[in-house]
Amino acid sequence: MQSKEAEIERLNDTEARALIAECPVALLPIGAVEAHGDHLPAGTDNILARRLAAALVERIAGSVPVMLLPLLPFGQVWSLADQAASISISNETVSQTIVEIGRSLKAKGIVTIAMVNAHYGNVTAIRDAQRRLREEGVKLALFNYPGAAEPTRAVREKPAAHPAYMHACEIETSYMLHMAPEAVRMDQAIANYPEFPDDFAEIPYRWSEFSASPVLGDATAASAEKGRIILDAVLARMAELVAALYARQSEKD
Q1: Pairing with 7, which of 17, 189, 194, 224 sits 20 to 30 Å away (CA)?
Q2: Rounded to an integer, what distance in angstroms lies between the CA atom of residue 122 and that of residue 211?
Q3: What contacts 55, CB < 8 A, 6 or more positions away?
Q4: Looking at the DSSP assignment, which residues form a beta bridge with residue 87?
Q5: PANTHER family given for it (predicted)?
Q6: What gap in Å lies between CA 105 and CA 107, rounded to an integer?
Q7: pLDDT digit string, tens, across residues 44-64
Q8: Domain map (residue ranges) of the chain
């Protein structure tokens, strides 16, 4: 199955009914419109989510039936909401949108959804939606670059700016160089290692309060090869997870 054969937007009524009859796993990519510095576009998370989901469809072609849903292009962007390129919606809106999509899919007999999320700011909302849909008989899985940790450690050359955060840095820029090189301006890439507040883990901060740039780390160290190595592992792990979801979807919780 090619991605265009799984995209609900491209299907006519007969094709959609045939795909639904296979009880596919629905793939729902979600990103955000968020500042990523001058070397990456505000739609970086959207580009990555959309292209990763399409690549996943291609990888599992012939083994697992999937329905590829349109991208959800807006997310919760509180930390960088004051930046010119950021557009944020609330956690409540993100969560409610996911829940209503889940209900609509369930009405058609699709009860397993995998979200391909490229924006960590969406996690709180997605977790809420997972629990709400679970109560309604819909299994919602969250894919936040699963399988990325080990290859990231292997290819990383420059230190992370913060143990819990990466943004527009060596790693995310490498993702883009691999998945969407035409959107990257490496001549504008910078290294930025701000001093995080001592109580950063306890108190929410707009990133502009301690950093002049949304880049956290060294984007100049990025390469397409690093992105390929990491995302190959991510796609392999997502393929395993989708296959397991499909195999288990008839089981009762």
Answers
A1: 224
A2: 22
A3: 3, 179, 231, 235
A4: 33
A5: 2-AMINO-5-FORMYLAMINO-6-RIBOSYLAMINOPYRIMIDIN-4(3H)-ONE 5'-MONOPHOSPHATE DEFORMYLASE, 3-DEHYDRO-SCYLLO-INOSOSE HYDROLASE
A6: 5
A7: 999 999 999 999 999 999 899
A8: 3-248
Q: How many CB atoms lie within 10 A of CB 80?
A: 21
Residues 6 or more apart whose CB falls under 8 angstroms from that of 73 comprise 31, 32, 33, 43, 46
- Closest by CA to 121, choosing from 163, 86, 85, 149, is 86
- Per the document, the length of the chain is 253
**253 pLDDT exceeds 50?**
no
The domain made up of 3-248 is a member of CATH 3.60.15.10: no
The C-alpha angle with vertex 183 and arms to 179 and 187, in degrees rounded to 5, equals 115
Token pair 């001592």 is found at 198
Q: Which residues contact 71 (CB under 8 A, 6 or more apart)?
A: 29, 30, 31, 46, 49, 50, 53
Buried b (16+ CB within 10 A) or exposed e, 183-196: ebeeeebeebbeeb
For residues 29 and 56, what is the distance between their CA atoms, to the nearest angstrom?
Answer: 11
State the Cα–Cα distance between residues 35 and 41, nearest whole angstrom. 7
User: If residue 192 lies in a helix (H) or strand (E), which one and from where to where?
Assistant: strand 191-192
Residues 171 and 156: beta-carbon distance below 8 Å: yes
Q: Which two tokens stand for residue 194?
A: 């701000």
- C-alpha 139/C-alpha 25 separation (Å) is 10
Indicate the burial class of 138 (C-beta count within 10 angstroms; 0-12, 13-18, 19 or more). Answer: buried
Q: Which amino acid, 7?
A: E
* DSSP letters spanning 139-202: EEEEESSTT-HHHHHHH--S--SBTTB-BSSHHHHHHHHHH-GGG--GGG--EE-----TTTTT
Give the DSSP H or E segment for 133: helix 123-134
